[in-house]
Amino acid sequence: FAARIAGLGLRCVVAPLQRIVPVPHDARALETAKGLVFTSENAVPFAGPGAGRPAFCVGPRTAERARAAGFVVIEGPGDAAGLMPMLQDLGPGWVHPHGAHLAARLPMPGVVVYDQQALPLPEEAAALLKRPAPVILPLFSPRAAALAAAAVAAVGPSPRPVRRPPAATTATTSRDPTRPRTTSTPRPRSCGTSPTPPAPPPS
């Protein structure tokens, strides 16, 4: 995300709110599955070699990771709700490897392969949140949003969320909105020079 907005002249502070940690799991269940369903790229490294097996992936970023691991990918539209209709007639034998904090249940057995451990807000990011200037916090999963809300509440007044229109999100964002990241987990980026959010409508 920081790379995508690098040309806007905003100051960005990388402040991870969670880290991905593998957990003990039934690797055999994944290895012998007919196919896998990935709703996060974080699960791919813990799912074993693809070896040409099929895998449904929630969106392009997860699909890219799964292809690199040797899976034959069927790519979804970018969110779990859009992926769900593609899974209804799969039949038995499919498995969903996922994190300990799951945003959506799918119609097949699941295996927890990693945990999303909360991290404290870095001091630099906390200092920015205490200032009166607007701060942009891009969030890409429900858990990241919950952790960010708690972190912001601990250092200052509650933020006013601004939701991007769906069309704009689709056009400019290639990242899976349902998942945290593996090597760099969902993280708020504090941009102190960002435009002021629109004022609420008059009552």
Name the helicity range. Answer: 10-25%
Total beta strand runs = 6
Shape: elongated
- Gap from first CA to last CA: 35 Å
Poorly predicted sequence stretches spanning 5 or more consecutive residues: 166-200
Please give the count of helices.
Answer: 6
Residue fraction in strands = 15-25%
Output the strand order for the largest sheet. Answer: 1-6-5-2-3-4
Mean of the pLDDT scores? 80
The string of secondary-structure elements, in order, is: EHEEHEHEEHHH
Main β-sheet description: 6 strands, mixed
Helix-strand category: alpha/beta
What integer value in Å does the Rg equal?
Answer: 18 Å
Summarize the structure.
With 203 residues, the chain is of the alpha/beta class.
Task: State the main characteristics.
six-stranded mixed sheet; 6 strands; 6 helices; 203 residues; 25% helix; alpha/beta; elongated
